[in-house]
Amino acid sequence: MNILVVNAGSSSVKYCVFSFPEEKVITQGMIEKIGEKKSKIPTHQKALLAMFKKIKEVISLKKIDAVGHRIVHGGPLIYQPTLLTKQVIRKLHTFDDLAPLHNPYNLLGVILCEKYLHCPHIGVFDTGFHHDLPEKSKTYAIPYQYLKKIRRYGFHGISHEYVALEASHILQKPLSSLRFITCHLGNGASLCAIKNGKSVDTSMGFTPLEGLVMGTRCGDIDPDIVAYLIEKEHLSRKEVFHILEKKSGLKGLAGVNDMRDLLAHIKKGNSRAKLAFDAFCYRIIKYLGAYLAVLGGADGIIFTAGIGEHAPLVRHEVLSAFHFLGIVLDPKKNQKNEVLISKASSTIPVFVIPTNEALMIAMKTKEFLLKKK
User: Are the CB atoms for 353 and 315 separated by under 8 Å?
Assistant: First the structure.
């Protein structure tokens, strides 16, 4: 079985073709800078045509058995892997406002792919892993009549589930018996508390704006700041949310949103960069400490995604706060980004596990197809 995985974003399309049962990558790539000035790829349709051209160099499109699409937001009702019919796509578009930087482009990718690949197209949702959050975790303390439409959804679920599964394999224990705290730290960032294989809390909420300090997103703020910016700074609602989504976080504090650039500025003595780094790590420490309490301890702490996998200084700064609990890093292993970076004496093992959302989407697509047979 050959499965194409497509992750269509606002300015890029990532793709990967897997062969099962070997879980072998046949071909993969990314089409970038869609619609940017001087780009050779002005539209998403051109991007997908470029993608198909690359794929056909390795495998005939007729040999693609299914396409798995990453879709960020499935809303309250669509959370399991789902056949993407026209009716389902229309329903998913009603949640565009909840993930405006992702959902419209995810769904555009589906519509365009369906024109060229006449096989099942399956949606796999970033919110899916968090769908069954406990009531006390997913509920906002707002008037009860609004709770049918407003809840904490959580995101990065595909990544959180994948790395937790990988850690369970390392520990040689079933995921259903373990407690993990997974730290997906990239330009977008979130933590997840996992108990017996289920998400019981996560730092993102109704939208991906809640939670940690991120590359360009503010994370947790007092909601009255929005009213202040509109009323006192005379900004429109659209301008305020553009600021909170695209001009805040590390970029807002230090002028850069790439952790590598931030660390380079810190070495040069840049105080704003140091403030941004400290705020970023401090917010992670707060959530990590909270989730240790929620779970009553943990069988593992997992770092993943761009920063989580490649920024030893971030991991050191965060976990230094937990020496009092007996969590101890091995400095050499941490510096080398090894899989197990804690000392043997550490009360909780700490892992660095590269995420593989594409493989997780492919596996869920395959499972969906096999169930339908």
Answer: no
CA dihedral sign of residues 83, 84, 88, 91:
positive
9 neighbors 357 (Cβ within 8 angstroms): no
Selection from 70, 223, 76, 71 nearest residue 138 by Cα: 76
The span from the CA of 112 to the CA of 236, in Å, is 34
Which residues share a beta bridge with 67?
4, 121
Backbone angles phi, psi at 32, to 5 degrees: -115, 170
How far is 180 from 143, CA to CA, in rounded Å? 33
pLDDT score recorded for residue 35: 80
List residues with catalytic annotation: 126
**Domains of the chain with bracketed CATH:** 2-125 (3.30.420.40), 157-352 (3.30.420.40)
Q: What is the secondary structure of 8-57 as a DSSP string?
A: E-SS-EEEEEEETTTTEEEEEEEE--TT-TT-S--SHHHHHHHHHHHHHT
Q: In whole angstroms, give the CA distance from residue 179 to residue 35.
A: 43
Taken in order 204, 209, 210, 211, the sign of the CA dihedral is positive
Report the chain (373 residues): mean pLDDT per 10 consecutive residues: 91 91 92 81 87 92 94 88 93 84 86 89 95 97 94 96 98 98 97 98 95 97 97 96 95 96 97 98 99 98 97 98 98 97 98 97 95 76
User: Residue with structure tokens 């949606």?
Assistant: 123
